[in-house]
Write a structure and sequence with these properties.
The chain has a domain of 153 residues: 3-Layer(aba) Sandwich (Peroxisomal Thiolase, Chain A, domain 1). It is built from twelve helices and ten strands. Helix 2 packs across helix 3. It starts with 8 loop residues before the first helix and ends with a strand.
């Protein structure tokens, strides 16, 4: 990153906590990452695609403007004509999608559901092919001052994101005291323009123009102060709210897995909730912000490392563009 814009390893770590990230090779799409995560989730569950009767996908970076990637995931997995649903709740996509998936199962619409959060954020990076060659380590050439200045215009955004996918298989619980217990979800659209992409939508005619491209309007716009203030206020509130809804308290929660937006946000949420380090999990330093993929990846790491044990009460919490935010409780 320091080779292509005015930043440094120290600057990135201090402001975000990120130490590394992953970008896909050009030609690899969000649906490809989603399929890879889905196959791993199915293997972990000891199931095959034939055992799944519903797909839910959360992404803000679909392969195409439309349709969503659910149908592509279904086709690539060879899953016949099972229904595939796409949702667009950005960084709160996993929490919202978990509620949708839970409702489908409780309603009897699905017996075994595949829920995926996947993102290829590299598509909205403002980098030229030459810059990408440097970023990906294919070239040691210096880029021009003009190109470096262009990249630096967006440095507060390009240093945050990575590409990734995570998936879970969901089904009805045999024990009413385990599995997903409850949700507290909210939306407030008054500050949409504090975090959004100011092009590529039908508020414009055409919905994407040459002028938009020249201005870099395909890159998200973010009012960092508003996002930070909202996140560190609303996320703790949602945690307390969901606990109260199911007759529990924060003291009953064994582990909180927040959306990995920024290490500083997670630290502020931890402070607001007065939690010790062993009751909140962070892995943004390894992947960057991967939007809908952060929580399922973190959950998988906690499961496989032994951080989560049978009977533990887990809280997922996140806030994303919209603003959408919320929390979910699950008993392992």
């Amino acid at each position: 990153m320091a080779k292509v814009c005015d930043t440094s390893d120290e600057w990135i770590r201090e402001r975000s906590g990120i130490q590394q990230r992953y970008f896909v090779k050009e030609g690899t799409a969000t649906s490809d990452l989603a399929v890879g995560a889905a196959k791993k989730a199915l293997d972990d569950a000891g199931l095959t695609p034939a055992d799944i009767d519903y797909i839910v996908v959360a992404t803000m970076t679909p392969d195409y403007y439309f349709p969503g990637i659910g149908s592509q995931v279904q086709a690539k997995l060879g899953m016949g004509t099972v229904p595939a649903l796409d949702i667009r709740q950005q960084c709160s996509g996993f929490v919202y999608g978990l509620q949708v998936s839970d409702a489908l199962i409780r309603a009897g619409a699905s017996k075994r559901l595949l829920f995926i959060g996947a993102e290829v954020h590299s598509g909205f990076m403002p980098f030229s092919p030459k810059t990408w060659d440097v970023v990906m380590g294919r070239s040691n050439d210096e880029i021009s001052k003009e190109e470096r200045d262009w990249n630096s215009k967006f440095r507060h955004l390009v240093v945050l994101f990575g590409d990734a996918a995570g998936a879970v298989v969901l089904g009805p619980s045999e024990n009413k005291d385990t599995g997903v217990l409850g949700f507290a979800l909210h939306t407030d659209g008054k500050n949409v323009e504090s975090l959004y992409v100011p092009s590529g939508g039908f508020a414009y005619r055409p919905y994407f123009s040459e002028a938009h491209a020249k201005e870099g309007r395909y890159v998200p716009v973010m009012d960092g102060k508003t996002v930070f203030k909202t996140a560190i206020t609303k996320m703790p509130e949602a945690v307390h709210e969901v606990c109260a809804k199911v007759g529990l308290t924060l003291n009953d929660v064994d582990l909180i897995i927040p959306h990995q937006a920024n290490q500083r946000i997670s630290e502020a949420v931890q402070k607001a909730l007065k939690l010790p380090d062993d009751r909140i999990f962070n892995n943004i330093y390894k992947y960057g912000n991967t939007t809908a993929a952060t929580i399922p990846i973190a959950y998988d790491e906690c499961k496989k490392s032994g951080r989560i044990q049978k009977g533990n009460l887990i809280c997922f919490v996140g806030l994303g563009a919209g603003f959408h935010w919320g929390a979910a409780l699950m008993r392992e």
